[in-house]
Description:
This protein is an alpha/beta fold. It is built from 7 helices and 4 strands, in the order βαβαβαβαααα. The chain is globular and about 45 Å long.
Amino acid sequence: MTQLVLLPGLACDDRMWQHQLAVLPAAWQPTVTDGHARHDSIPTMAEALLARHPGPLVLCGASMGGIVAMEVARQAPQRIRGLALLGTNARPETPDMHQLREAAIGFFEQGRALEVLRLNVQLAFHASRLQDTALTQRYLDFVMEAGAGQLVRQNRAIITRPDARLHLPQLRC
């Protein structure tokens, strides 16, 4: 049976998908993966997802979760029945973004993650939702709970991500 796997964004967890999980049909067997929290590279995150979820897959990835989903599709295209990529990027890291991420990593290592994350709220939410302080605070809370170590590891994984544009055209789902 095909399984729907939701892949959270950078430093996020299943709370990112709580509203979707509440309304998705149980027959789809939706689950949220946490491999991004346990591994240090996009390829090993994808390998872990494939090992943990055997059989055909429908993947829905947001941001970094989409990057991992694209790598899963590269590693096992025959298992992919559907792919939803939300707010993500198939391109490799640009030099400008690499520099920005390295600066953010410096802040995370100095214990100044909240400074960076407050600025990131502008990028993480549509302008119409920025005034929803309960929503943005929940986001800040669970990303801060992930901790500086995870923020550093996951940003480094994104910096070295593969160029998914090379394999996506061959994907059939």
